[in-house]
Write a structure and sequence with these properties.
By secondary structure, the chain is mostly helical. Helix content is 86%, strand content 0%. Helix 1 runs antiparallel to helix 2. The C terminus is likely disordered.
């Protein structure tokens, strides 16, 4: 009867241990998934957010470089000679194209892709406007070239700057979302780790109880002889 009771208790304990082990395995898989998510988030923060944010700085630098170079050319006394300024503008345009290509290789959200497309359109329009300004100066119409540079050129330049600012804001917002996701994964990982430790403690206690129960059952019963004599053969 006692052995039947022990077997029942052991079966219950085995089922409980199996459930606990299953939970630990599931928690381990979830923790691994969370760690992969954290690694992916931090990699994305660098590759898809920090690098494009740095690229935006260089785009802004080259954009203002184009603007200032052309303004200095218009203010100089030899505005009709456009060979030097053309070389400077080509260098800036080459840098801008390279930076845009690098930007496009990163992961872009829909809003980001739309804003980058608008920026490329504005850059192309501004490059055409620069050519028109230089052609007017070469034709001796320097005053007309200056008005075009200050008027339509100023408006187009302002739009390109706004597009860059929009891209920078998008980088910031998406980066914040990635940080929040990472914090959520870290919190989940902490909770699962605590539960795994708790389950390990429970398993240890159950094993101790089973060992103690087995020892009590297997211990031989000592009987005493009321006569107090030993029988000798």
């Amino acid at each position: 009867m006692k052995w039947s009771f022990v077997i029942q208790q052991k079966l219950k304990a085995a089922m409980l241990l199996g459930g606990i082990m299953g939970f630990i395995i599931l928690a381990t898989l979830i923790s691994r998934h969370n760690m992969e998510g954290i690694d992916k988030s931090f990699s994305s923060i660098y590759k898809d957010r920090l690098v494009p944010a740095t690229t935006i700085i260089y785009l802004t630098e080259n954009l203002y470089g184009k603007r200032l170079s052309l303004e200095e050319h218009l203010m100089s006394g030899n505005a009709a000679d456009k060979s030097e300024i053309q070389s400077q503008l080509r260098a800036h345009n080459k840098n801008i194209d390279s930076l845009i290509n690098a930007f496009e290789k990163t992961y872009l959200v829909d809003e980001e892709a739309k804003s980058l497309g608008a920026f490329k359109s504005e850059i192309a329009e501004y490059a055409l406007l620069e050519k028109s300004v230089l052609n007017l100066c070469s034709a001796g119409q320097q005053d007309e070239g200056k008005r075009l540079f200050a008027g339509s050129g100023g408006v187009t330049f302002a739009r390109t700057v706004r597009n860059l600012n929009e891209l920078a804001n998008i980088q910031s917002n998406v980066g914040k979302d990635l940080v929040r996701e990472s914090k959520s994964d870290i919190a989940s990982f902490g909770i699962l780790s605590f539960l795994q430790i708790a389950m390990a403690v429970v398993i240890g206690l159950m094993l101790l109880v089973l060992i103690q129960s087995s020892a009590v059952i297997s211990k031989p019963k000592i009987t005493s002889d009321k006569t107090g004599y030993f029988h000798m053969n």
